[in-house]
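Predict the structure of Prolyl 4-hydroxylase alpha subunit domain-containing protein.
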Amino acid sequence: MGLSFGSFLQFAVIGVLGYILAGAPLRSLLSPTPTSERPNVLPFHAKKSLVIPDKDLNCPKHDYTVHLLAREPLVIYIENFLSGDEARHVVEMSEPRFKPSTVWTKGIERLDDKVRKSEKAQLDRDDVVKCIEERARTFQGWQANVFIEKLWSQRYGPSGHYRHHYDWSTSTSTSGRISSFMVYLEANCTGGGTNFPRIKKPNHETWCRFIECGNEDGEEGWDGVTFKPIAHNAVFWENLRSDGSGYTESWHAGLPVKSGTKIGLNIWSWYQKGYTPEA
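Done. Here is the predicted structure for Prolyl 4-hydroxylase alpha subunit domain-containing protein.
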């Protein structure tokens, strides 16, 4: 016996309601959740670069001093973030590995010394490097789902520089490079400061120990704050708000080295909501 049109329509409506109540399973196939939005699924960048903390790591005690420069975004200056022995160890590890630094544009890696003129070296994760990673993680309060990226050192000779840029490129409320450390390993140079043109320079003269205040040997003609390269010290700043939007104030540059050599260490932190290494 054939179905009347009214009966067919009734069955169709019931079927649609059942599909909706079941969670519309085909919707996830037609409009899949972006990889960076799914718990425990890392984007390509993070798969290559994130390091998992060593639970059995035993690091020597190390003291440093912090100075709050700005709250929004959070910017903190750290005296003695590395010991002299740690800095020398990282430099010695880096020396045979330095290669020209590259820039990325729309997913394509290239050399462009007008934008970035330096050399870079990725570090092996020996116990010294692991303890530096752990110190950076601890500094941020052991935040859930925050992981340190593999460490890179950077060497700048005369005229070496990195034009103004963000450390974050794309981000969401569930993933992104949330913070950065610029650590100075060696600073046998003039020039080469780290400039944040959109951050207000503090007025108190005590800051002139760490930032350029217009003295005759300093960086002149740059807006905002320029941190002097001082060996073993570091600058920490946040790149992203809690909603995943980036701070425009985190726009920064490595100013040209006038003479000598500057060697720095980049420490970046990546947030991936819901990610657990065990899973």
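The chain has two domains: 5-32, 37-272.
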